[in-house]
Amino acid sequence: MLINPRPSESSPAVAHDRVYRALRSRIMHGDIAPGQAMTLRGIGEEFEVSMTPAREAVRRLVAEGAFSMSSSGRISTPELKSERIEELAALRALIEVELASRALPRAHMALIERLQMINNSIAEQIAKQDAVGYIRTNLEFHRTLYLRAQAPAMLAMAETVWLQLGPTMRALYGRLRRKELPHFHRVIVAALQAGDEPGLRLAVRSDVTQGLKMLAR
Known about the structure:
By secondary structure, the chain is mostly helical. Helix content is 71%, strand content 3%. The protein has helices at 12-28, 40-47, 51-63, 82-103, 109-128, 131-147, 152-176, 183-194, 197-216, and strands spanning 37-38, 68-69, 75-76. It has a three-stranded antiparallel β-sheet with strand order 1-3-2.
């Protein structure tokens, strides 16, 4: 019987995936500003890989809308126009409200306690004025709830929207200068405890669109 060997840590496929995942996480969590320019050479040097894995990682991120690439090969995170922000906010409202609704019948006390713990972490990030930490823990709150929906294709779509919005969310955080926990997170937790589907759907829709509407003005 033939056994496929595990790819070496230095193989192009493994290197490409490592670079892709690291950049994807940075973009999604707002660690890269809107319009920030990057180069394949710079990416390769940072991650200590050749141009090929760097290029393949960038191609995947361009396909997902996380990077834009000009005809000259200039790579940057997109600076979203108002129309695009409104479109992505509408997508969040559609997809995430449905995910929350599907998660509700599978919600249990352990989930609610976990969401409350994440909210405590969000409060810590707010106190430290850590924008990237805030965005990361905020998305963790939503992902933890949506995993209970058991709808992986839908969750993957939501994460692609988060990826495209990451740098913009960083800009939003800077504008809001938030000093307290997002109000609608508490409403989401309360609706889960009460088994209130209409209340849950409204709270999620409000939470994922309220701030983005401000940016789109």
